[in-house]
Amino acid sequence: MQIIVDGSSSDLQSWPKGPWMAQAAHAAIAAIQISSSSPASQEYVSESNLASMHKVVLQTPKEGKAKMSLQDLSEKLSEARKVYEEGGEQGEEFPKHHLWVEQPEGLATCLALAPNRKPAALKKILRPCTLLKD
């Protein structure tokens, strides 16, 4: 499971860590809920896996050619999921995702991908994202 925050948003960089953590939790729960029928999600939340859940927290690129917002990333992920659903992408299931938009601000704060085994198409989309370190 991947959780991604906007690395370039100055609005979010001033937030304390607690609210960021809450946004990540909201997005992660939503992603699991919308993918609850997926075998990968069912395995992820199974009782035998509760002690070994794995998440990676990433940030979108802050600058340069690869710079993208969470909305841009969401659009790329939606398109890749559509290709998968139409049978254009063979192999592992392309995961669903949820873009959390904080209200009433209307600010995209976090994006979470449903549990997955990192299919090649997902790796390509997430390649510009880096680990969130602070």
UniProtKB/TrEMBL annotation:
It is an enzyme of class 3 (hydrolase). Keywords: Hydrolase. The keyword Transferase does not apply. Pfam families: PTH2. GO terms for molecular function: peptidyl-tRNA hydrolase activity. Its EC number is 3.1.1.29. The keyword Repeat does not apply. InterPro entries: Pep_tRNA_hydro_II_dom_sf, PTH2, PTRHD1. This is peptidyl-tRNA hydrolase. The lineage of its organism: Eukaryota, Fungi, Dikarya, Basidiomycota, Ustilaginomycotina.
